Amino acid sequence: SDVGSQKERVVTEEEWLQKWEMGNIGFHKTQGHPLLQKYMDVLLNGRRGLRIFFPLCGKAVEMKWLADMGHSVVGVEVSEQAVKEFFSEHSLPYCEEPVPEISGAKMFQSTSGNISLYCCSIYDLSSSIVGKFDGVWDRGALVAVNPCDRQRYASLMINLVEKNSRYLLVTVSYDPNKHKGPPFYVPESEIKSLFG
Ligand code: SAH
């Protein structure tokens, strides 16, 4: 398929912040994603007390699901509004602290300690800051990354996962000449070359 029309497109962090300010967040699923319900067992694989990563997390309600199941959730999101809305919409008390390794970044953590959301760009993270993860829920993340940044994103994600991790990825399939994205169309062949 021809994805040439999307290859050059760039959505800036400022534009994402504006989407949040304008309430232009059609991607948010109030009821959570049915595909995570369906494939929860594949993600967990019978394991308990996992560390689960939500890249480009928005205010995904699935973070609450995993935390309620006893897992430890880490997310990253550029919009502080999104992060604060997550905690307030679930009536979760939280505290806020700077991240010494990343200038300007803040980490918002539920008082219970099992949900930590980094407010910064995902490209500021590394395993020395956030550790490694046993599971990843990638919905609205790879497909939201600018096409020119996909390689960098995938390399980072590979670095952030443990050997025996499980990674669930949701993509969208459509004619990229008819919609400029995001979500961008990422062909399966490209996913294979990015993640091996
Ligand atoms: N995964 C979420 C949100 C998808 S929309 C869900 O399923 O609802 C993509 C989100 O990524 C937006 O909230 C946007 O603000 C955020 N974002 C965009 N670029 C980012 C970056 N470089 N680092 C961290 N977050 C980013």
UniProtKB/TrEMBL annotation:
<dbReference type="InterPro" id="IPR025835">
    <property type="entry name" value="Thiopurine_S-MeTrfase"/>
</dbReference>
<comment type="similarity">
    <text>Belongs to the class I-like SAM-binding methyltransferase superfamily. TPMT family.</text>
</comment>
<keyword id="KW-0808">Transferase</keyword>
<dbReference type="InterPro" id="IPR029063">
    <property type="entry name" value="SAM-dependent_MTases_sf"/>
</dbReference>
<protein>
    <recommendedName>
        <fullName>thiopurine S-methyltransferase</fullName>
        <ecNumber>2.1.1.67</ecNumber>
    </recommendedName>
</protein>
<keyword id="KW-0949">S-adenosyl-L-methionine</keyword>
<dbReference type="GO" id="GO:0032259">
    <property type="term" value="P:methylation"/>
</dbReference>
<keyword id="KW-0489">Methyltransferase</keyword>
<feature type="binding site">
    <location>
        <begin position="121"/>
        <end position="122"/>
    </location>
    <ligand>
        <name>S-adenosyl-L-methionine</name>
    </ligand>
</feature>
<feature type="binding site">
    <location>
        <begin position="16"/>
        <end position="27"/>
    </location>
    <ligand>
        <name>S-adenosyl-L-methionine</name>
    </ligand>
</feature>
<dbReference type="GO" id="GO:0008119">
    <property type="term" value="F:thiopurine S-methyltransferase activity"/>
</dbReference>
<dbReference type="GO" id="GO:0005737">
    <property type="term" value="C:cytoplasm"/>
</dbReference>
<feature type="binding site">
    <location>
        <position position="139"/>
    </location>
    <ligand>
        <name>S-adenosyl-L-methionine</name>
    </ligand>
</feature>
<keyword id="KW-0963">Cytoplasm</keyword>
<dbReference type="InterPro" id="IPR008854">
    <property type="entry name" value="TPMT"/>
</dbReference>
<feature type="binding site">
    <location>
        <position position="77"/>
    </location>
    <ligand>
        <name>S-adenosyl-L-methionine</name>
    </ligand>
</feature>
<dbReference type="Pfam" id="PF05724">
    <property type="entry name" value="TPMT"/>
</dbReference>
<feature type="binding site">
    <location>
        <position position="56"/>
    </location>
    <ligand>
        <name>S-adenosyl-L-methionine</name>
    </ligand>
</feature>
